[in-house]
Write a structure and sequence with these properties.
elongated; alpha+beta; about 120 residues; three-stranded antiparallel sheet; 3 strands
Length: about 120
Amino acid sequence: MSNYYWASLEAETWSSDQGPFDTRKAALDAAYKEDDCPFCTGRRVDVSTQEFVKVNTDHILEHMSELAGEECGEAAEDWPDLNRAQEKELEATLEVAIVKFFEDHNLGPKFWKIEDVMEHKEGHL
């Protein structure tokens, strides 16, 4: 699978112009043709929306409580009153809804991450 990339050590991001290559060695060979050492090579890993959807129900429930308190005063003081199991269920439900929304509207990540990064200073693996 072609998923190795290279980047200079000064680069702030990994670029699709610097890959993909079938092997780490092929990525490094291409890097040497472009510039002098030092370089990094790494393996591209695609990411999904779900990796970045972490709902914090504490914030949501606190905001709801503040709004209710502003609107209804002390009568809303203990609302909403969820137990931990209900909070976990709410988190899961909201996370599923957010991921579905992003998928339905083709709003998923258009970026990827690099793993297994190796630094190359001497011109070899």
